[in-house]
Amino acid sequence: xxxxxxxxxxxxxxxxxxxxxxxxxxxxxxxxxxxxxxxxxxxxxxxxxxxxxxxxxxxxxxxxxxxxxxxxxxxxxxxxxxxxxxxxxxxxxxxxxxxxxxxxxxxxxxxxxxxxxxxxxxxxxxxxxxxxxxxxxxxxxxxxxxxxxxxxxxxxxxxxxxxxxxxxxxxxxxxxxxxxxxxxxxxxxxxxxxxxxxxxxxxxxxxxxxxxxxxxxxxxxxxxxxxxxxxxxxxxxxxxxxxxxxxxxxxxxxxxxxxxxxxxxxxxxxxxxxxxxxxxxxxxxxxxxxxxxxxxxxxxxxxxxxxxxxxxxxxxxxxxxxxxxxxxxxxxxxxxxxxxxxxxxxxxxxxxxxxxxxxxxxxxxxxxxxxxxxxxxxxxxxxxxxxxxxxxxxxxxxxxxxxxxxxxxxxxxxxxxxxxxxxxxxxxxxxxxxxxxxxxxxxxxxxxxxxxxxxxxxxxxxxxxxxxxxxxxxxxxxxxxxxxxxxxxx
Length: 490
Prior knowledge:
- By secondary structure, this protein is α/β, with parallel strands linked by helices.
- The protein has helices spanning 2-28, 58-68, 90-102, 116-124, 155-168, 185-197, 221-228, 244-253, 292-297, 313-325, 335-338, 350-370, 378-381, 479-487, and strands at 31-38, 78-85, 107-109, 129-131, 148-150, 173-179, 201-208, 234-239, 263-272, 301-306, 388-391, 397-400, 410-417, 425-439, 445-453.
- Helix 2 runs parallel beside helix 12 (350-370) and helix 3 (90-102) runs parallel beside helix 4.
């Protein structure tokens, strides 16, 4: 019954798409229709789905309207889009990839959660596909996915930034702690691969299950630290940043940060730095403010996080996205307004990536038109995307690399006094990352990042901790000398 319903719904969707295309061509001439694959609704069998489409989808309306109003961009064409709702189901995403291609779309903007299988289908049909959401590493391979591009940085990007931090301070041996949630699996794989490639030894890796809520649930880091602190001095941690306070405060209680011998580098995955609330990064999810213990602990912490958008431009963008979310074809009502609060939805970073994806296609299609080429030719269109730069809705310049991946823009944050708030502490920007090209011993060119410090680091000890004690974690590097000392005559 479920299959029959799904087939009927998809057939109706295809008919609607074809009719819309026919009417559009009659009334406007050449129309380039975009298929927008998103998840803004949930089903009863998956009620916990977070429906990201409800807080980002207005960005595609904004971008399409702006482009159609700009005589300097695709002046002979009109952009339109059709919405394909997946309910967060990868099967639906695959079905709509096929339906959109059959319906004659010029390109697909998406998909959302998954993209490897969809990108393979798109490449088989030579259909341009630009994802604003998918972080999967595999699709960076342009030999296998020659029509796929993305405006959301892949998980490799933040991993390269972490590697540059470790290399800058000569931390060539680390222990990795990570949340076991599937969401962080790709990040963990990328970290393992990038650190190994940079000759940074991972002495071990352990995970914790479930979401840790500081002060409300048992602290998983008690056991993890007790089991591992003899084998490391530098921890790399991957999870929800508000969970890290459990690790930091336990290490402080245990006295590991005393003297500056231990340090933690945390990944803030899928987050943008919020300059308005730097104190939030050193307190638990339900803590009203940082306490003395956490403030002391975070003296031994670096965070790698997405750079803050440029204000006030990003505020204007967020306002426009909120307005379009409540307008057709989405009609996602603001729940705060329904309760009498004049408060906008909090817009996710993917809204900017969605906006950027539409512009990336439009600019490439414009170049194709200038050369009398087909803007539906995915393989050809990608040549107008790779090795180009654009101004993102975030407000800063983003580069698309040779793999058609948007390069990440990350910031290093550390404990410091909050400006204009004497005595109050939070995690503040202390550095950024500059893209560089390294030449390996095998004469291979590799793109990486170099840490550029902009503030002086206030170390707990006399300087950065050593990644390994002089005699090794268990004295193994001084074994011969200890043996000589033991037999030396008195």
